[in-house]
């Protein structure tokens, strides 16, 4: 299940957010070698982890298996403040456009081959469900160009904002990816389950057994 963490409920997710920051450090610093993000405490946190960020956690049995962060395009975000060179034309801005960042999945729960892993599918489905319910239909992504075909296969409508450039020793392209109900149906079809992945509003935190 995907948990939405906002400034209003982040105090209920202190342990899970601690796990998420450490997962980010393991993936982006230790694995991907983005050494500029390294922190002595092993927690990857930046200036965009603020009151405007929406965090999405994939949690199972109290463990964070996957994470992603959404940032409003109407506020400072990666494309506007850190990687503006990736956008060759007018930067996409609007209440219906958010930036998708810091996507990461625990190595033990990643896909093998071309199929999305259950955690990856749940995270993407969470974006689409949340977006459809929040008046959001487009995300900005800075990603490896190889992801372009994957997104099209998932029924996102992608538009590159410029040519790929080297960032941290890797090719990165900025795109907008729009989605609608058909995208959600495609993700549901791929996992063979049409149930909602976002927890219901009254479920404000993961269930824990006493003892």
UniProtKB/TrEMBL annotation:
Signal peptide: none annotated. Belongs to the autoinducer synthase family. Coiled coil: none annotated. This is Acyl-homoserine-lactone synthase. It holds the Pfam family Autoind_synth. Its EC number is 2.3.1.184. Keywords: Autoinducer synthesis, Quorum sensing, S-adenosyl-L-methionine, Transferase. It catalyses: a fatty acyl-[ACP] + S-adenosyl-L-methionine = an N-acyl-L-homoserine lactone + S-methyl-5'-thioadenosine + holo-[ACP] + H(+). GO terms for biological process: quorum sensing; signal transduction.
């Amino acid at each position: 299940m995907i948990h939405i963490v906002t400034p209003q409920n982040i105090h209920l997710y202190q342990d899970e957010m601690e796990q998420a920051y450490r997962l980010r450090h393991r993936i982006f610093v230790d694995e991907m070698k983005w050494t500029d993000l390294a922190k002595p405490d092993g927690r990857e946190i930046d200036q965009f982890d603020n009151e405007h960020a929406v965090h999405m956690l994939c949690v199972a049995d109290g463990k964070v298996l996957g994470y992603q962060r959404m940032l409003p395009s109407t506020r400072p975000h990666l494309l506007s403040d850190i990687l503006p060179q990736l956008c060759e034309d007018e930067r996409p801005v609007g209440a219906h456009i958010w930036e998708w960042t810091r996507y990461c999945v625990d190595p033990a729960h990643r896909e093998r081959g071309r199929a999305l892993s259950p955690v990856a599918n749940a995270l993407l489905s969470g974006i689409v469900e949340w977006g459809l319910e929040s008046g959001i239909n487009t995300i900005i992504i800075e990603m490896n160009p190889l992801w372009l075909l994957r997104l099209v296969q998932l029924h996102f409508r992608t538009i590159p904002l410029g040519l790929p450039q080297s960032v941290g020793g890797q090719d990165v392209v900025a795109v907008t990816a729009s989605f609608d109900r058909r995208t959600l149906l495609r993700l549901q079809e791929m996992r063979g389950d049409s149930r909602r992945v976002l927890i219901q509003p009254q479920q404000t935190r993961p269930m824990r057994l006493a003892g």
